[in-house]
Structures are given as structure tokens and as C-alpha cells.
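Thread amino acids onto this structure.
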């Protein structure tokens, strides 16, 4: 009897340990098919179970931002296949303007896997590979899947009920070598963030962010996400927990010493209404010059350079709680666009000096009208709507109609008065999508108006040679009207997003359903 109990206990322990190891690693058998990225290589790894890869993520990655994954490419097909698999691990490497390489390991149902083994396409993949024609690659156990509208084949193989997908034959061979242990793989990959959750991601910048810094090192972010059961209409529909991992101890210590969480009373923030996007950060004081400011402060560095304050006064003005917002209205000629504002907090006399310099140095000669509730400064049309005003320990400047300014109660609903944070970002994605669509239409109208008069956007005659800047040259994913329109349509289907930078190396993201009203 005791022997039977001992055997049963051993089985239970082994099963429990297996489950723990599986959830800790995200399924090592899946990861064993993915070649390990090289040191300091930029990559994105996504690992999901129970069909946890959302369609919106695939659309955002492939259509909203990157023409490298446009429809008709193997990378596009692999990304969308991940949304119909029961379990998936997708690895994107060499993420840059001139190329990206994607491979993935996916688990389908037994019947679907059996079809793939036979060189047949299961029903779930039929919409992605239309009229698929599948053939074996010579004597290898790798299949090439050609399809209507697909520029080159997608390659796949099946190993131990797991299907490996690759955008080219060389990558498929490398995946097989990884699965056989002939080259290093991601087998045993561990998730430090909420390891029991069904969806994880890891992004490494390959050292891009710190390449011009004194200390050069790659920044790696791990994240886990899940849907939430809503008890009230204002509750988030899901959450993401993120954390910086693999940081050098000196870097982690420096971050902790530099950035300190503080309580935010966002209900007192002055933001344009309706609010599209707002970001707040508690900035440590520095001795840098405006042209050395990093994003998002780089957005206002040009204006700061024109102001006759000392560099010390400028740095003191932006230190502490700084809020940058997009929303409301700003009238430019006969067009109405979203407004843009910067809110600073600090010593009262300094805030007054900032506003006075704003009008004297940046908009000299403007007819400034006072704004109700502010002690100094005001608003002017030059010919667009400009505000620059201060009260108590707060100053607000930007391009916005004063009647659209209001308190940030929508932010307070997300952050709360007692919540400590280093920084945060709020985005109303449906409103951002609508604004992008309107701006794209306006851009089209302007282009047509200028071209009808024989003049392009830059005032050149249409017969003159023009050095056009392409999307790949500019480096901005939304420089193309088509890309902006696609992202705008995607944003309309999403809800509100609130990101909180809680600690120097970690934070949280909440998303809200499109039907939520705040």
C-alpha cells in the first residue's frame, strides 16, 4: 500500500514539476525550433498559448507600421498564421529598414498537424495561402508552400507535432538544426514576468538606444499580457506587465537613483479636450542643452532654443512633472487640427518667466489676449491658435484654442490620485484613428490644391526636379499616407490605452474596450 502511495506521489510530483517547467519556459519544445539570436542582435520574440495572439497585433505589425511585412510576403503569411494556431512562438530578427527575417513554431490540432505532415493545407490556413500548392524540397523533410498572391514560397516542416515556419529555405534549415541540437536554440527560455500567463513577448534593441551613449548595452524588455473580467464598465479589458531584464547592475542602480516614482494628481492637469494622447513624466534635473534633449522633450527643444532663458532655467523648467498632450482643436488658416500642448510645473516666478519669454522671443509682436483663470500670458492667432499662460506653479504652452482646454479628469480615472509613478501615457486610439484619417484627407486636398496651381508642397514649380524622399529613406513608418490610413483604421477598432511607468525598470499597461465611456 505504501509503495503504491509512493508511486502515485512520485507521479504527481513529476507531473507538477513538468507543468511548472513548461509554464516557466513557455513550452521548451516550441522554443527549441527557434535559433537563438546573436549577441547584440535586435529581435522580437512573441510566445502565446490558447490562441492568445490577437489579430490586432498582427495587423499593427504587418500593415500599420511596416511595408516589409506587407500582404503577399512570406513574413506577412507567417505572422497571420500565428493568430490561428493553438500555440505559437514567433521570432523576428534583423529588424531594420532594409529587411526583417521571421520564423515561427506553431502547434495546431492533431488533425491539422496530420494534414501538414502529408503536405496538405489545413482549413485554418486556407484564407492565408489561397490555392496553395505544396511540394517537398528535394530529399529534405521541408515543404515549400506556394500560393496565389504570394511573391515567394513559405517553408515549413513538422517535428514532434510542432510545425516550424520560415520565410526562406536557409532559415528553415537553420530551424531544423536548432531542433536537432546542432545549433543553439531558445530551448529552456524563461519568462521573468508573470510566467503563468498565456502570452509573453520580449524585445531587444540590439544596443540601438545607447549606441551614442557613454555606456553601450542592449536594452531588453519582457512583457506578459492577459484579458480581464470586467466588474464595472470603466474597468480595463486587459493588462500588460512589462519589465527591463538582463540589465547590468550598475545600469539598474543608476536608473533607480535617477528616476523616482511620485504621486500624480492628474485631475489637475490642463489638457486639450477631447483628449487624444497625453504623456507625463517626472524628469530629473540635468545640465543638458535643449538640442540634447531626448524624446518626448525633443518635440519642444526647437522652441526652447529660441527662448532667452539660461540653459539652467530651461532645465529647471522641464524638470519635475512635465505633461505633453495632443487633442482639442487648433485652427490653422481654414483648417481645424488637433491641438498640441506642453504643461510644466515648478517655482511660480520661473513659470511666469517661461511664459513671458515664450511670447517675447518665440511669438514677438503677437496680440496676446488673457485667458480666464490664468495670472499671466494668454492666447493669440498668428494666424494659428497659440496659448502660453501660467498660474500658480503651472505653465501651459502650445498650439490650441483656449476654449478647448480643460482638466484631466479622464486621466485621473486611469491613474488615480494615490498612484505613484515615474511617468505615464494615455492614448484614445479610436480618436487618434479618426484624427489620422482626417489629416490624411486634408493632406490629399492640400496636395491637389497645390498641384492644380503647378506648385508642389514645398513651393517648387512642378517642372523642377524634385529629390523625393521614400518611406524607407525617411525611416518613419507613418510618412506614407497609405500607412497612416491603415494605422488609422486599425486604431479605430482599438480602445483606450493607459501605460504606467511604475518603477525604474518596470510598469503596467491597461487597455479599455471601444465601448467604454469615461
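Threaded sequence (518 positions):
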Amino acid at each position: 500500500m505504501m509503495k503504491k502511495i509512493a508511486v502515485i506521489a512520485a507521479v504527481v510530483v513529476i507531473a507538477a514539476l513538468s507543468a511548472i517547467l513548461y509554464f516557466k519556459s513557455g513550452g521548451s519544445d516550441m522554443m527549441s525550433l527557434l535559433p537563438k539570436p546573436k549577441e547584440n542582435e535586435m529581435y522580437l520574440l512573441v510566445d502565446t498559448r490558447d490562441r492568445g495572439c490577437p489579430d490586432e497585433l498582427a495587423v499593427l505589425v504587418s500593415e500599420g507600421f511596416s511595408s516589409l511585412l506587407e500582404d503577399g510576403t512570406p513574413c506577412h503569411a507567417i505572422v497571420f498564421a500565428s493568430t490561428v494556431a493553438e500555440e505559437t512562438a514567433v521570432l523576428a530578427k534583423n529588424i531594420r529598414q532594409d529587411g526583417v527575417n521571421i520564423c515561427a513554431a506553431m502547434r495546431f490540432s492533431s488533425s491539422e498537424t496530420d494534414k501538414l505532415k502529408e503536405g496538405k493545407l489545413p482549413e485554418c490556413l486556407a484564407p492565408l495561402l489561397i490555392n496553395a500548392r505544396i511540394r517537398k524540397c528535394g530529399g529534405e523533410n521541408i515543404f515549400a508552400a506556394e500560393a496565389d498572391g504570394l511573391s515567394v514560397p513559405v517553408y515549413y516542416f513538422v517535428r514532434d507535432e510542432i510545425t516550424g515556419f520560415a520565410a526562406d529555405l536557409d532559415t528553415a534549415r537553420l530551424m531544423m538544426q536548432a531542433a536537432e541540437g546542432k545549433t543553439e536554440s531558445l530551448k529552456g527560455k524563461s519568462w521573468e514576468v508573470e510566467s503563468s500567463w498565456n502570452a509573453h513577448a520580449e524585445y531587444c534593441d540590439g544596443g540601438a538606444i545607447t549606441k551614442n551613449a557613454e555606456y553601450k548595452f542592449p536594452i531588453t524588455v519582457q512583457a506578459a499580457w492577459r484579458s480581464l473580467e470586467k466588474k464595472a464598465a470603466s474597468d480595463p479589458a486587459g493588462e500588460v506587465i512589462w519589465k527591463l531584464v538582463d540589465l547590468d547592475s550598475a545600469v539598474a542602480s543608476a536608473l533607480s537613483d535617477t528616476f523616482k516614482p511620485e504621486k500624480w494628481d492628474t485631475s489637475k492637469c490642463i489638457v486639450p479636450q477631447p483628449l487624444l494622447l497625453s504623456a507625463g513624466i517626472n524628469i530629473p534635473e540635468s545640465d543638458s542643452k535643449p538640442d540634447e534633449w531626448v524624446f518626448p522633450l525633443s518635440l519642444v527643444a526647437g522652441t526652447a532654443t529660441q527662448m532667452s532663458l539660461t540653459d539652467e532655467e530651461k532645465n529647471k523648467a522641464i524638470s519635475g512633472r512635465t505633461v505633453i498632450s495632443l487633442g482639442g482643436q487648433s485652427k490653422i488658416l481654414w483648417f481645424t487640427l488637433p491641438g498640441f500642448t506642453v504643461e510644466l510645473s515648478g517655482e511660480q516666478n520661473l513659470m511666469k518667466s517661461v511664459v513671458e519669454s515664450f511670447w517675447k522671443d518665440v511669438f514677438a509682436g503677437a496680440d496676446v489676449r488673457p485667458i480666464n483663470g490664468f495670472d499671466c500670458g494668454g492666447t493669440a492667432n498668428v494666424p494659428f491658435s497659440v496659448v502660453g499662460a501660467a498660474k500658480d506653479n503651472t505653465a501651459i504652452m502650445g498650439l490650441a484654442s483656449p476654449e478647448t482646454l480643460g482638466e484631466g479628469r479622464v486621466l485621473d480615472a486611469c491613474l488615480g490620485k494615490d498612484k505613484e509613478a515615474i511617468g505615464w501615457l494615455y492614448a484614445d486610439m479610436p480618436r487618434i484613428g479618426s484624427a489620422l484619417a482626417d489629416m490624411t484627407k486634408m493632406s490629399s486636398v492640400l496636395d491637389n490644391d497645390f498641384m492644380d496651381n503647378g506648385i508642389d508642397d514645398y513651393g517648387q514649380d512642378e517642372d523642377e526636379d524634385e529629390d523625393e524622399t521614400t518611406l524607407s529613406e525617411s525611416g518613419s513608418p507613418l510618412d506614407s499616407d497609405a500607412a497612416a490610413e491603415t494605422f488609422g483604421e486599425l486604431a479605430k477598432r482599438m480602445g483606450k490605452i493607459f501605460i504606467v511607468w511604475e518603477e525604474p525598470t518596470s510598469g503596467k499597461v491597461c487597455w479599455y474596450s471601444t465601448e467604454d465611456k469615461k
